[in-house]
Amino acid sequence: MMRPTFALLGLMLTLSAPHALAQDAVIGRYGHHVYVMVPTDKAGNRAYVQRAAANACEGKSLCHASVWAESLDRPEGAPPHPRYEENKLAAFQRNRNAGVEASHSINCRLFARDINVPCLAGTE
After folding, report:
1. How many angstroms from the chain centroid is the CA of residue 8?
2. Gyration radius of the chain's alpha carbons
3. What's the distance, Cα to Cα, between the start and end of the chain in Å?
4. Highest mean pLDDT, choosing among 4-8, 19-23, 68-72, 92-96
5. Looking at residue 21, what is its pLDDT?
6. What is the pTM of this model?
7. CA 5 to CA 27: how far, in whole Å?
8. Predicted pLDDT of residue 2
9. 12-38 burial, b for 16+ CB within 10 Å, e for fewer?
10. Mean pLDDT, residues 45-74 taken together
11. HEC readout, the chain
C-alpha cells in the first residue's frame, strides 16, 4: 500500500514545482491581444523575441502580441497593468484589414536601437 502513496506524492511534487520555460508560451488571450512569454535565456535575442511575437499571431488577420521574459508575475487583462509596460520586450501588430501585414516595436532600453524597428512607447 505504501508504493501508490509515494508515487502520488512524487507526482504532486513534480506538478507543483516551478519549471523554466523550454519554449515560448502564450500566457493570455484578450480579444485580439495575445500575451507571450519567452525563456529568460532567449529574452536578450531581439530576433528571437520578434519571431515569438509574430508566431503568436500566425494565421490571424487582426492581432496584437506583446512579449515578456519568463516571470512568475504574469500580466493579465487588457490593457495590462502599467508596471508591465516597462518590462515588455517587444510588440507585434497585424491588421490585414488596414493593410498592415507586420509591424514590430521593441523596448529600446533593453535592445540596441534599430532604424528599421520603432521603439515601444516610453522606451525611446
Report:
1. 33
2. 18
3. 63
4. 92-96
5. 62
6. 0.78
7. 33
8. 43
9. eeeeeeeeebeebeebbeeebbbbbbb
10. 92
11. CHHHHHHHHHHHHHHHCCCCCCCCEEEEEECCEEEEEECHHHCCCHHHHHHHHHHHCCCCCEEEEEEEECCCCCCCCCCCCHHHHCCCCEEEEEEHHHCEEEEEEECCCCCCCECCECECCCCC
Give the whole-angstrom CA distance, residue 70 versus residue 58: 21
Q: Nearest Cα to 38, choosing from 70, 79, 73?
A: 70
| Rounded average pLDDT over 51-77 | 92
Q: What letter represents residue 106's amino acid?
A: I
Residue given cell 530576433 in the structure block: 47
Cell 517587444 maps to which residue? 90
Place of cell 515560448: 24
Residues 6+ apart with CB under 8 A from 10: none
| 20-34 residue pLDDT tens | 567 889 999 999 999
The residue type of 77 is G
Q: What is the pLDDT of residues 68-90, one digit of tens each?
A: 999 878 898 888 888 888 889 99
